[in-house]
Amino acid sequence: MGKTLYEKVWDSHLVREVEGQTPILYVGRHLVHEVTSPQAFSGLRSAGRKLRAPEKTFATMDHNTSTRSASLDALSPMARIQVDTLKDNCEEFGVKLYDITHKNQGIVHVMGPELGITVPGTVIVCGDSHTATHGAFGALAFGIGTSEVEHVMATQTLRQTKAKMMRIEVRGQVAEGITAKDIVLAIIGKMGMDGGTGHVVEFCGEAIQSLSMEGRMTVCNMAIEMGAKAGMIAPDETTFAYLKGREFAPKGKDWEEAVSHWRELKTDDDAVFDAKVVLDASQIAPQLTWGTNPGQVVAIDQPVPSPEDEPNTTIRDSIKKALNYIDLKAGTKMTDVSINKVFIGSCTNSRIEDLRAAAVHAKGRKVAEGVIAIVVPGSGLVKEQAEIEGLDKIFMEAGFEWRLPGCSMCLAMNDDKLEAGDRCASTSNRNFEGRQGRGSRTHLLSPAMAAAAAVVGHFVDIRYPF
Ligand SMILES: CC(C)[C@H](C(=O)O)[C@@H](O)C(=O)O
Ligand code: SF4
Protein backbone atom coordinates (compact mmCIF):
# COMPACT_ATOMS: atom_id res chain seq x y z
CA MET A 1 0.00 0.00 0.00
CA GLY A 2 1.21 3.50 -0.82
CA LYS A 3 2.09 6.12 1.76
CA THR A 4 0.88 9.63 2.40
CA LEU A 5 3.30 12.55 2.55
CA TYR A 6 2.86 12.54 6.33
CA GLU A 7 3.75 8.85 6.56
CA LYS A 8 6.86 9.36 4.44
CA VAL A 9 8.18 12.11 6.69
CA TRP A 10 7.12 10.21 9.80
CA ASP A 11 8.82 6.98 8.73
CA SER A 12 12.06 8.71 7.80
CA HIS A 13 12.23 10.35 11.25
CA LEU A 14 11.19 7.44 13.40
CA VAL A 15 13.98 6.67 15.86
CA ARG A 16 12.21 4.04 17.90
CA GLU A 17 8.81 2.41 17.91
CA VAL A 18 8.07 -0.18 20.56
CA GLU A 19 4.72 -1.83 21.27
CA GLY A 20 2.97 -0.06 24.14
CA GLN A 21 5.24 2.99 24.11
CA THR A 22 4.94 6.39 22.48
CA PRO A 23 7.12 6.45 19.34
CA ILE A 24 10.20 8.68 19.30
CA LEU A 25 10.80 11.00 16.35
CA TYR A 26 14.00 12.72 15.31
CA VAL A 27 13.70 16.51 15.10
CA GLY A 28 15.36 18.20 12.13
CA ARG A 29 14.88 21.83 13.15
CA HIS A 30 14.00 23.43 16.45
CA LEU A 31 12.79 27.04 16.47
CA VAL A 32 12.78 28.98 19.71
CA HIS A 33 11.22 32.23 20.92
CA GLU A 34 11.32 34.18 24.16
CA VAL A 35 7.96 33.14 25.60
CA THR A 36 8.11 29.34 25.70
CA SER A 37 11.84 28.73 26.14
CA PRO A 38 12.95 30.12 29.56
CA GLN A 39 11.82 27.12 31.65
CA ALA A 40 13.24 24.70 29.11
CA PHE A 41 16.68 26.30 29.30
CA SER A 42 16.49 26.39 33.11
CA GLY A 43 15.58 22.70 33.14
CA LEU A 44 18.63 21.89 31.02
CA ARG A 45 20.85 23.99 33.24
CA SER A 46 19.70 22.38 36.46
CA ALA A 47 20.15 18.91 34.97
CA GLY A 48 23.64 19.89 33.80
CA ARG A 49 22.75 19.11 30.17
CA LYS A 50 23.84 20.69 26.92
CA LEU A 51 21.91 21.12 23.71
CA ARG A 52 22.11 17.93 21.63
CA ALA A 53 22.20 19.84 18.31
CA PRO A 54 22.68 23.59 18.73
CA GLU A 55 23.30 23.91 14.97
CA LYS A 56 19.71 22.76 14.35
CA THR A 57 18.26 25.23 16.84
CA PHE A 58 17.42 28.84 15.90
CA ALA A 59 15.99 31.54 18.13
CA THR A 60 14.26 34.85 17.57
CA MET A 61 12.49 37.49 19.65
CA ASP A 62 9.02 38.26 18.41
CA HIS A 63 6.06 37.98 20.79
CA ASN A 64 6.61 40.76 23.27
CA THR A 65 9.03 43.01 21.44
CA SER A 66 8.06 46.59 20.66
CA THR A 67 7.13 47.48 17.08
CA ARG A 68 7.82 51.17 17.74
CA SER A 69 11.41 51.00 18.87
CA ALA A 70 14.31 48.54 18.62
CA SER A 71 15.61 49.79 21.94
CA LEU A 72 15.45 47.42 24.89
CA ASP A 73 14.36 50.37 27.01
CA ALA A 74 11.07 50.44 25.09
CA LEU A 75 10.06 47.11 26.63
CA SER A 76 7.84 46.55 29.62
CA PRO A 77 9.69 45.03 32.63
CA MET A 78 8.20 41.57 31.94
CA ALA A 79 9.08 41.67 28.23
CA ARG A 80 12.55 42.92 29.10
CA ILE A 81 13.15 39.94 31.38
CA GLN A 82 12.07 37.45 28.70
CA VAL A 83 14.14 39.09 25.97
CA ASP A 84 17.25 39.37 28.18
CA THR A 85 16.79 35.78 29.36
CA LEU A 86 16.62 34.49 25.79
CA LYS A 87 19.79 36.38 24.90
CA ASP A 88 21.66 34.98 27.93
CA ASN A 89 20.37 31.46 27.30
CA CYS A 90 21.35 31.50 23.64
CA GLU A 91 24.85 32.70 24.55
CA GLU A 92 25.26 30.07 27.25
CA PHE A 93 23.94 27.16 25.16
CA GLY A 94 25.40 28.22 21.81
CA VAL A 95 22.14 28.87 19.96
CA LYS A 96 21.97 31.19 16.96
CA LEU A 97 19.79 34.14 17.97
CA TYR A 98 18.18 36.85 15.86
CA ASP A 99 17.75 39.52 18.51
CA ILE A 100 15.83 42.75 18.04
CA THR A 101 18.78 44.55 16.57
CA HIS A 102 19.48 41.88 13.93
CA LYS A 103 18.22 42.58 10.43
CA ASN A 104 16.86 39.04 10.08
CA GLN A 105 14.85 39.19 13.30
CA GLY A 106 11.18 38.53 12.87
CA ILE A 107 8.20 36.39 13.71
CA VAL A 108 9.55 32.88 14.10
CA HIS A 109 7.28 31.49 11.36
CA VAL A 110 8.26 34.21 8.90
CA MET A 111 11.96 34.20 9.64
CA GLY A 112 12.47 30.39 9.50
CA PRO A 113 11.24 29.89 5.94
CA GLU A 114 12.82 33.01 4.52
CA LEU A 115 16.25 32.01 5.81
CA GLY A 116 15.87 28.51 4.36
CA ILE A 117 15.86 26.97 7.85
CA THR A 118 12.56 25.36 6.89
CA VAL A 119 13.08 22.62 4.32
CA PRO A 120 10.87 19.85 2.90
CA GLY A 121 10.66 16.42 4.47
CA THR A 122 11.98 17.40 7.86
CA VAL A 123 10.38 17.42 11.31
CA ILE A 124 10.20 20.98 12.59
CA VAL A 125 9.06 21.91 16.07
CA CYS A 126 8.72 25.08 18.10
CA GLY A 127 7.03 25.93 21.38
CA ASP A 128 4.33 27.69 19.41
CA SER A 129 1.05 26.48 17.97
CA HIS A 130 1.48 28.16 14.58
CA THR A 131 4.51 26.05 13.77
CA ALA A 132 2.06 24.39 11.36
CA THR A 133 3.05 27.20 8.95
CA HIS A 134 6.23 25.35 7.96
CA GLY A 135 4.17 22.44 6.66
CA ALA A 136 3.75 24.53 3.51
CA PHE A 137 7.16 23.15 2.49
CA GLY A 138 6.19 19.51 2.94
CA ALA A 139 7.77 19.46 6.40
CA LEU A 140 6.01 17.83 9.36
CA ALA A 141 5.80 20.88 11.59
CA PHE A 142 3.88 21.30 14.81
CA GLY A 143 3.85 23.18 18.08
CA ILE A 144 5.09 21.61 21.31
CA GLY A 145 4.81 22.42 25.03
CA THR A 146 7.59 23.86 27.18
CA SER A 147 8.55 20.49 28.73
CA GLU A 148 8.82 19.07 25.21
CA VAL A 149 10.99 22.04 24.23
CA GLU A 150 13.41 20.93 26.94
CA HIS A 151 13.24 17.30 25.73
CA VAL A 152 14.06 18.37 22.17
CA MET A 153 16.91 20.57 23.37
CA ALA A 154 18.41 17.71 25.36
CA THR A 155 17.89 14.87 22.87
CA GLN A 156 16.89 16.32 19.46
CA THR A 157 13.97 13.89 19.61
CA LEU A 158 10.36 13.99 20.66
CA ARG A 159 7.80 11.45 21.85
CA GLN A 160 4.86 11.58 19.47
CA THR A 161 1.71 9.60 18.87
CA LYS A 162 0.88 9.09 15.24
CA ALA A 163 -1.99 11.27 14.07
CA LYS A 164 -4.85 10.32 11.77
CA MET A 165 -4.63 11.61 8.22
CA MET A 166 -7.01 13.92 6.43
CA ARG A 167 -6.87 15.18 2.87
CA ILE A 168 -8.44 18.52 2.02
CA GLU A 169 -8.62 19.06 -1.70
CA VAL A 170 -9.50 22.47 -3.11
CA ARG A 171 -10.57 21.67 -6.67
CA GLY A 172 -10.31 24.08 -9.58
CA GLN A 173 -9.14 27.67 -9.47
CA VAL A 174 -10.25 30.58 -7.33
CA ALA A 175 -11.74 33.69 -8.92
CA GLU A 176 -9.64 36.81 -9.42
CA GLY A 177 -8.83 38.58 -6.14
CA ILE A 178 -9.42 35.54 -3.93
CA THR A 179 -6.40 34.88 -1.74
CA ALA A 180 -4.92 32.07 0.35
CA LYS A 181 -6.54 33.63 3.42
CA ASP A 182 -9.97 33.37 1.83
CA ILE A 183 -9.28 29.73 0.95
CA VAL A 184 -8.23 28.77 4.45
CA LEU A 185 -11.04 30.73 6.12
CA ALA A 186 -13.52 28.99 3.79
CA ILE A 187 -12.00 25.63 4.76
CA ILE A 188 -12.26 26.38 8.48
CA GLY A 189 -15.78 27.76 7.98
CA LYS A 190 -16.74 24.41 6.47
CA MET A 191 -14.86 22.22 8.96
CA GLY A 192 -15.48 24.19 12.17
CA MET A 193 -12.86 25.00 14.77
CA ASP A 194 -12.43 21.34 15.74
CA GLY A 195 -13.06 19.64 12.40
CA GLY A 196 -9.42 18.63 12.05
CA THR A 197 -8.86 17.38 15.61
CA GLY A 198 -6.49 14.43 15.84
CA HIS A 199 -5.45 14.72 12.20
CA VAL A 200 -2.53 15.88 10.16
CA VAL A 201 -4.11 17.56 7.16
CA GLU A 202 -2.64 17.48 3.69
CA PHE A 203 -3.92 20.33 1.54
CA CYS A 204 -3.97 19.60 -2.17
CA GLY A 205 -5.80 20.33 -5.40
CA GLU A 206 -5.28 22.82 -8.18
CA ALA A 207 -6.09 25.90 -6.09
CA ILE A 208 -3.47 24.93 -3.50
CA GLN A 209 -0.83 24.01 -6.08
CA SER A 210 -1.37 27.37 -7.77
CA LEU A 211 -0.51 29.27 -4.59
CA SER A 212 2.90 30.85 -4.07
CA MET A 213 4.93 29.63 -1.08
CA GLU A 214 3.68 32.62 0.87
CA GLY A 215 0.06 31.70 0.15
CA ARG A 216 0.74 28.08 1.10
CA MET A 217 2.20 29.28 4.40
CA THR A 218 -0.98 31.26 5.10
CA VAL A 219 -3.04 28.11 4.54
CA CYS A 220 -0.88 25.81 6.69
CA ASN A 221 -0.57 28.49 9.39
CA MET A 222 -4.28 28.21 10.08
CA ALA A 223 -4.51 24.39 10.00
CA ILE A 224 -4.23 24.56 13.77
CA GLU A 225 -7.35 26.76 13.88
CA MET A 226 -9.50 23.82 12.79
CA GLY A 227 -7.91 21.70 15.49
CA ALA A 228 -5.46 19.87 13.22
CA LYS A 229 -2.11 18.72 14.56
CA ALA A 230 -0.34 19.99 11.47
CA GLY A 231 -0.97 21.03 7.88
CA MET A 232 1.19 19.91 4.96
CA ILE A 233 1.51 20.64 1.26
CA ALA A 234 3.62 18.46 -1.01
CA PRO A 235 6.76 20.27 -2.20
CA ASP A 236 7.06 21.03 -5.91
CA GLU A 237 8.91 23.34 -8.30
CA THR A 238 7.39 26.39 -6.54
CA THR A 239 8.91 25.18 -3.27
CA PHE A 240 12.34 24.49 -4.74
CA ALA A 241 12.45 27.83 -6.55
CA TYR A 242 11.57 29.63 -3.30
CA LEU A 243 14.27 27.86 -1.31
CA LYS A 244 17.13 27.98 -3.79
CA GLY A 245 19.94 30.24 -2.60
CA ARG A 246 18.48 30.98 0.82
CA GLU A 247 21.02 31.22 3.60
CA PHE A 248 20.53 27.83 5.30
CA ALA A 249 19.21 25.90 2.29
CA PRO A 250 21.56 23.21 0.93
CA LYS A 251 24.10 24.42 -1.66
CA GLY A 252 25.84 22.97 -4.74
CA LYS A 253 25.82 19.19 -4.94
CA ASP A 254 23.87 18.96 -1.67
CA TRP A 255 21.16 21.05 -3.26
CA GLU A 256 20.83 18.69 -6.24
CA GLU A 257 20.66 15.69 -3.93
CA ALA A 258 18.17 17.37 -1.65
CA VAL A 259 15.86 18.30 -4.52
CA SER A 260 15.88 14.78 -5.93
CA HIS A 261 14.91 13.47 -2.47
CA TRP A 262 12.26 16.18 -2.03
CA ARG A 263 10.65 15.20 -5.33
CA GLU A 264 9.68 11.86 -3.73
CA LEU A 265 7.76 13.66 -1.02
CA LYS A 266 4.26 13.29 -2.31
CA THR A 267 1.34 11.11 -1.36
CA ASP A 268 1.21 7.92 -3.41
CA ASP A 269 -1.90 7.38 -5.53
CA ASP A 270 -2.98 4.35 -3.51
CA ALA A 271 -2.32 5.86 -0.06
CA VAL A 272 -5.25 5.80 2.34
CA PHE A 273 -6.56 8.76 4.36
CA ASP A 274 -8.83 8.53 7.40
CA ALA A 275 -10.91 11.41 6.05
CA LYS A 276 -11.24 13.29 2.78
CA VAL A 277 -12.84 16.67 2.21
CA VAL A 278 -13.38 18.48 -1.09
CA LEU A 279 -14.04 22.18 -1.71
CA ASP A 280 -14.84 23.87 -5.00
CA ALA A 281 -12.41 26.80 -5.37
CA SER A 282 -14.67 28.68 -7.79
CA GLN A 283 -17.31 29.04 -5.05
CA ILE A 284 -14.98 30.86 -2.64
CA ALA A 285 -15.78 34.56 -2.15
CA PRO A 286 -13.75 36.92 0.06
CA GLN A 287 -14.18 35.63 3.61
CA LEU A 288 -14.20 37.16 7.06
CA THR A 289 -15.10 36.04 10.55
CA TRP A 290 -18.20 37.43 12.24
CA GLY A 291 -17.77 35.63 15.59
CA THR A 292 -15.30 34.62 18.24
CA ASN A 293 -13.64 31.57 16.76
CA PRO A 294 -12.01 31.16 13.35
CA GLY A 295 -14.76 28.78 12.20
CA GLN A 296 -17.40 31.48 12.59
CA VAL A 297 -16.87 32.73 9.09
CA VAL A 298 -19.01 34.16 6.27
CA ALA A 299 -18.47 35.42 2.76
CA ILE A 300 -18.40 39.21 2.55
CA ASP A 301 -21.70 39.25 0.64
CA GLN A 302 -23.47 37.24 3.34
CA PRO A 303 -25.22 38.53 6.47
CA VAL A 304 -24.28 37.75 10.07
CA PRO A 305 -25.87 34.34 10.71
CA SER A 306 -28.88 33.87 12.94
CA PRO A 307 -28.91 31.43 15.86
CA GLU A 308 -32.53 30.65 14.98
CA ASP A 309 -31.39 28.96 11.73
CA GLU A 310 -29.17 26.54 13.66
CA PRO A 311 -30.84 23.23 14.61
CA ASN A 312 -28.06 22.05 16.97
CA THR A 313 -28.67 23.63 20.38
CA THR A 314 -25.00 23.67 21.44
CA ILE A 315 -23.99 25.46 18.25
CA ARG A 316 -27.00 27.76 18.56
CA ASP A 317 -25.88 28.78 22.04
CA SER A 318 -22.33 29.41 20.88
CA ILE A 319 -23.63 31.62 18.06
CA LYS A 320 -25.69 33.62 20.58
CA LYS A 321 -22.71 33.98 22.89
CA ALA A 322 -20.45 35.06 20.03
CA LEU A 323 -22.98 37.62 18.74
CA ASN A 324 -23.26 39.04 22.21
CA TYR A 325 -19.50 39.47 22.63
CA ILE A 326 -18.88 40.72 19.12
CA ASP A 327 -21.88 43.04 19.45
CA LEU A 328 -23.52 42.27 16.11
CA LYS A 329 -27.12 41.49 15.27
CA ALA A 330 -28.08 38.47 13.20
CA GLY A 331 -28.97 39.47 9.64
CA THR A 332 -26.65 42.53 9.55
CA LYS A 333 -24.85 42.81 6.22
CA MET A 334 -21.12 42.38 6.81
CA THR A 335 -20.52 45.35 4.50
CA ASP A 336 -22.48 47.52 6.96
CA VAL A 337 -20.15 46.69 9.86
CA SER A 338 -17.79 49.57 10.76
CA ILE A 339 -14.34 49.12 12.24
CA ASN A 340 -12.06 51.52 14.12
CA LYS A 341 -8.78 49.58 14.08
CA VAL A 342 -6.90 47.69 11.39
CA PHE A 343 -3.99 45.33 11.91
CA ILE A 344 -2.04 44.10 8.90
CA GLY A 345 0.56 41.65 10.16
CA SER A 346 1.11 38.34 12.06
CA CYS A 347 2.65 35.04 10.98
CA THR A 348 -0.46 34.44 8.84
CA ASN A 349 -0.18 37.53 6.65
CA SER A 350 2.88 39.73 7.09
CA ARG A 351 5.02 38.61 4.17
CA ILE A 352 5.92 40.73 1.19
CA GLU A 353 3.08 39.50 -1.02
CA ASP A 354 0.61 40.30 1.77
CA LEU A 355 1.95 43.84 2.06
CA ARG A 356 1.84 44.29 -1.71
CA ALA A 357 -1.80 43.14 -1.76
CA ALA A 358 -2.69 45.58 1.02
CA ALA A 359 -0.80 48.44 -0.64
CA VAL A 360 -2.94 48.11 -3.78
CA HIS A 361 -5.93 49.38 -1.80
CA ALA A 362 -3.99 51.91 0.28
CA LYS A 363 -2.36 53.59 -2.70
CA GLY A 364 -3.58 57.14 -3.27
CA ARG A 365 -6.27 56.81 -0.59
CA LYS A 366 -6.56 57.87 3.04
CA VAL A 367 -7.34 55.84 6.12
CA ALA A 368 -10.95 56.66 7.02
CA GLU A 369 -11.59 59.19 9.76
CA GLY A 370 -11.60 57.65 13.23
CA VAL A 371 -9.69 54.56 12.09
CA ILE A 372 -6.20 53.66 13.29
CA ALA A 373 -4.41 51.25 10.97
CA ILE A 374 -1.01 49.65 11.49
CA VAL A 375 1.15 47.63 9.13
CA VAL A 376 3.69 45.33 10.80
CA PRO A 377 6.07 43.47 8.50
CA GLY A 378 6.79 39.90 9.62
CA SER A 379 10.56 40.24 9.62
CA GLY A 380 13.45 42.59 9.05
CA LEU A 381 13.88 41.16 5.56
CA VAL A 382 10.22 41.72 4.68
CA LYS A 383 10.50 45.28 5.98
CA GLU A 384 13.61 45.92 3.94
CA GLN A 385 12.04 44.53 0.75
CA ALA A 386 8.85 46.55 1.29
CA GLU A 387 10.90 49.71 1.70
CA ILE A 388 12.86 48.99 -1.49
CA GLU A 389 9.52 48.74 -3.27
CA GLY A 390 8.23 51.94 -1.66
CA LEU A 391 5.33 50.19 0.08
CA ASP A 392 6.16 51.95 3.36
CA LYS A 393 5.61 55.30 1.64
CA ILE A 394 2.30 54.19 0.12
CA PHE A 395 1.08 53.14 3.56
CA MET A 396 2.35 56.20 5.40
CA GLU A 397 0.98 58.63 2.80
CA ALA A 398 -2.39 56.95 3.25
CA GLY A 399 -2.15 57.39 7.03
CA PHE A 400 -1.22 53.83 8.04
CA GLU A 401 1.49 53.43 10.69
CA TRP A 402 4.57 51.57 9.46
CA ARG A 403 6.11 49.50 12.24
CA LEU A 404 9.04 47.26 13.16
CA PRO A 405 8.70 43.45 12.83
CA GLY A 406 7.05 41.34 15.54
CA CYS A 407 3.86 39.56 16.57
CA SER A 408 2.44 42.93 17.53
CA MET A 409 -1.35 43.22 17.74
CA CYS A 410 -1.92 39.55 16.93
CA LEU A 411 -2.06 38.84 20.64
CA ALA A 412 -2.22 41.21 23.57
CA MET A 413 1.30 40.46 24.81
CA ASN A 414 3.11 43.69 23.91
CA ASP A 415 2.27 47.39 23.60
CA ASP A 416 0.09 46.92 20.52
CA LYS A 417 -3.23 46.15 22.12
CA LEU A 418 -6.80 47.00 21.31
CA GLU A 419 -8.97 48.87 23.80
CA ALA A 420 -12.20 47.44 25.13
CA GLY A 421 -14.94 48.03 22.55
CA ASP A 422 -12.56 48.38 19.61
CA ARG A 423 -13.55 46.54 16.44
CA CYS A 424 -10.56 45.44 14.41
CA ALA A 425 -10.10 44.17 10.88
CA SER A 426 -7.14 41.87 11.43
CA THR A 427 -5.07 39.70 9.11
CA SER A 428 -4.05 37.42 12.00
CA ASN A 429 -5.36 33.94 12.79
CA ARG A 430 -7.27 34.08 16.08
CA ASN A 431 -10.39 36.00 17.03
CA PHE A 432 -11.09 34.56 20.47
CA GLU A 433 -12.63 36.82 23.13
CA GLY A 434 -9.97 39.27 24.30
CA ARG A 435 -7.31 37.94 21.94
CA GLN A 436 -6.18 41.42 20.86
CA GLY A 437 -6.98 43.11 24.15
CA ARG A 438 -9.63 42.71 26.82
CA GLY A 439 -13.13 43.49 25.54
CA SER A 440 -11.94 44.01 21.96
CA ARG A 441 -13.49 42.47 18.85
CA THR A 442 -11.56 40.85 16.06
CA HIS A 443 -12.60 40.07 12.49
CA LEU A 444 -10.14 37.91 10.57
CA LEU A 445 -9.68 38.60 6.87
CA SER A 446 -7.11 38.93 4.08
CA PRO A 447 -4.61 41.82 3.79
CA ALA A 448 -6.46 43.23 0.77
CA MET A 449 -9.77 43.18 2.65
CA ALA A 450 -8.14 44.73 5.73
CA ALA A 451 -6.60 47.60 3.75
CA ALA A 452 -9.90 48.21 1.98
CA ALA A 453 -11.72 48.32 5.34
CA ALA A 454 -9.11 50.80 6.61
CA VAL A 455 -9.75 53.31 3.82
CA VAL A 456 -13.53 52.94 3.78
CA GLY A 457 -14.15 52.53 7.53
CA HIS A 458 -16.29 49.41 7.15
CA PHE A 459 -15.94 46.02 5.48
CA VAL A 460 -16.15 46.08 1.69
CA ASP A 461 -16.47 43.53 -1.06
CA ILE A 462 -13.19 44.12 -2.85
CA ARG A 463 -14.44 42.33 -5.97
CA TYR A 464 -16.35 45.49 -6.91
CA PRO A 465 -15.18 49.11 -7.18
CA PHE A 466 -15.39 50.96 -3.86
C1 LIG B 1 2.82 32.59 22.95
C2 LIG B 1 2.61 31.34 22.18
C3 LIG B 1 2.82 30.18 23.07
C4 LIG B 1 1.30 31.30 21.41
C5 LIG B 1 1.07 30.02 20.61
O1 LIG B 1 1.54 28.94 20.92
O2 LIG B 1 0.38 30.04 19.64
C6 LIG B 1 1.17 32.48 20.48
O3 LIG B 1 2.09 32.46 19.45
C7 LIG B 1 -0.22 32.56 19.93
O4 LIG B 1 -0.38 32.75 18.72
O5 LIG B 1 -1.17 32.47 20.72
S1 SF4 C 1 2.09 36.34 15.01
FE1 SF4 C 1 0.45 35.75 16.38
S2 SF4 C 1 -0.07 33.66 15.87
FE2 SF4 C 1 1.92 34.11 15.00
S3 SF4 C 1 3.37 33.39 16.50
FE3 SF4 C 1 3.03 35.57 16.89
S4 SF4 C 1 1.37 35.63 18.40
FE4 SF4 C 1 1.40 33.55 17.56
Q: How would you characterize this protein structure?
A:
GO terms for molecular function: 3-isopropylmalate dehydratase activity. It holds the Pfam family Aconitase. It is an enzyme of class 4 (lyase). Catalyzes the isomerization between 2-isopropylmalate and 3-isopropylmalate, via the formation of 2-isopropylmaleate. Its cofactor is [4Fe-4S] cluster. The protein contains 15 helices and 19 strands. It is of the alpha/beta class and about 475 residues long. It has 3 domains: about 5-160, Aconitase, domain 3 (2-Layer Sandwich); about 165-285, Aconitase, Domain 2 (3-Layer(aba) Sandwich), CATH 3.40.1060; about 285-455, 2-Layer Sandwich (Aconitase, domain 3). It has a 5-stranded parallel beta sheet, sandwiched between helices. A 5-stranded parallel beta sheet has the order 17-16-15-18-19. Helix 2 (about 40-45) crosses helix 5 (about 145-155) and helix 12 (about 350-360) packs parallel to helix 15. The longest helix is centred in the first third of the chain and has 17 residues, at about 75-95. It is globular and about 55 Å long. It starts with a helix and ends in a 10-residue tail after the last helix. 3-isopropylmalic acid binds near residues 63, 129, 143 and 411.
